[in-house]
Specification:
Serine Threonine Protein Phosphatase 5, Tetratricopeptide repeat; mainly alpha; globular
Length: 143
């Protein structure tokens, strides 16, 4: 349980919050544009996995969300953090933001507010306006 709600419910809520951000990720479509009914099918997961394994940050971010929410794969916060870390190192602002969240809450990584702040600052610095403003809100609340 995360603050009274289940992890899956929390991440489904987070996914809904971040879908507009994911949609701005570039020419490779977010779940909504590559999959009209927004379901994570085995084919979609295979596409994301292939992209993620080749170092494509947006797919690493999306794969992290799928693992965090248990959407199409068993829920696994360690795997979510793993893919967000890879995406963050590939300078994907959405992954940086979520890796910061993982460190802030201890989702699949040891809780570490200093690392959370580091990743939120990176997302605020390099992210599109939607990501940067969300990162700045998290930074403001962390102080």
């Amino acid at each position: 349980m995360i603050s009274g709600i289940s992890g899956k419910a929390f991440f489904l809520t987070a996914l809904l919050l971040f879908l507009p951000i994911a949609a701005t990720a570039g020419p490779v479509a977010a779940p909504a544009s590559s999959n009209p009914d927004n379901t994570v099918t085995p084919a979609v997961l295979a596409k994301w996995m292939a992209g993620a394994e080749h170092g494509y940050g947006p797919d690493q971010y999306r794969l992290g969300l799928a693992y965090a929410a248990g959407d199409g794969v068993p829920q696994n916060f360690n795997e979510a953090a793993h893919w967000w870390r890879k995406g963050a190192y590939n300078i994907n602002p959405q992954a940086e933001l979520m890796l910061g969240e993982a460190y802030a809450h201890g989702w699949g990584v040891p809780r570490d507010i200093d690392k959370a702040i580091r990743w939120w600052k990176a997302a605020a610095r390099y992210g599109p306006p939607e990501v940067a403003s969300r990162a700045q809100l998290l930074l403001d609340s962390a102080v």
